[in-house]
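User: Show me a protein chain along with its predicted structure.
Assistant: Here is one chain, sequence first, then structure tokens.
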Amino acid sequence: MAKLFSPLTVIGESSSSGSGTLARTRNAIRRNKWRLRPLKRLVLPLRNSKRQAIALLRTVTPGLEAAPAIERSTSSYIDHSSSHSAIEVFSAEKVQSLPHPLQSRNGQQVADSSMPAQVFELNRIDFWGRYGGCVVTADHKLLGDLSPEVWGVENHAIFSRLRLPALEYLAGRTGIAVTPEAVGNYYHWVLDLLPRLSLIKKNGDDFDSFARILINGSRARYETESLTALGVPPEKILYVDEHRRFRLESATIPSMDQASQIVAPWKVRALRGLRDSLPNRRSSPRRLYISRRNAAVRRILNEDRLTPLLEKAGFTSVELESRSWAEQVQMFAGAEVVLAPHGAALANIVFCRPQTLIAEINTRAGYRDFYLRLAATASLRYRVLEAEPRAATNGSTIRAVENEDMIVDEYSLDRFLGEL
């Protein structure tokens, strides 16, 4: 058999991403910033020291507010409260895994369960817009599962800040779709934030009952276009970040499943429903090759030499930066085969029809199974075309290895194409 070939690249922008001094400078920074990743291990010790100092300061300084107590489960908290409620919109569902393309498990497949999707109706809460949001109840409880933190809830930034942004009062009902990693990250925008918005819509009469919807994002083209497609009234959108904190009269917040190892089936159904609501304007290529020619990382360095092979096999090469969000959705919906280097563009395979073949180009050292898991839930066929990294990766950080440019063996590609 031929070797078959954190989703981070922002796509969908109409600017000339590979041209100009600014673009070259930006891409050069992105190509090398992963090599500085080890410096992040200094963040937690520094935050711990600051947290301990602030905790001591609170004990000796009159008038300073105490740190909130941690309540890990919003559902458990609501069970003991009469002023809040929880609605289970979708129950847990089993998903059969696909065989790992680079690891031998004797063909054994396992089933895992998604987390239930819930919508929480909370009254009189404080909401801080940092990262994926931070929720503190009126009785001073930090709701851990609605206050995500990469270092764990015990190390949440709220405990290492002496002062938070001033509170702004918002009356009426507020929908909150602030989601971890959604800012400038197409994968998390599509597979996490948009499905959570669909839960808000489902429980809010098409957003009519909400005074506003809180969102974190970069206002990229794909964001505005997908929000419009979902029917979010633009006048109700309020973008927030770590500089905004609110006291909310009433809040509707969907649950998060960032700890899950699978993509929940309800998300795939919601996104495919959104796909089907878009107008079908024109036919699209059946065989797609997604180029990263203008990307900062994970480019195919010998792409020009591969182009004749791809064209002979009937593939159309596409650079998604110049396409609208609806065009991208339509292209993936109409594809029978998608061949692409690892990158955020592959989040669009959620819009593919069942049994579409997804062939991901990646190196063995840099492989991560994001799209294997998505393919399993979305009932797609999946293979990996193994490439070689541009440079030796011994001693590199995980993120640096993930983001190396790649070289694809022409013979392996030719054999793969011949098997289609």
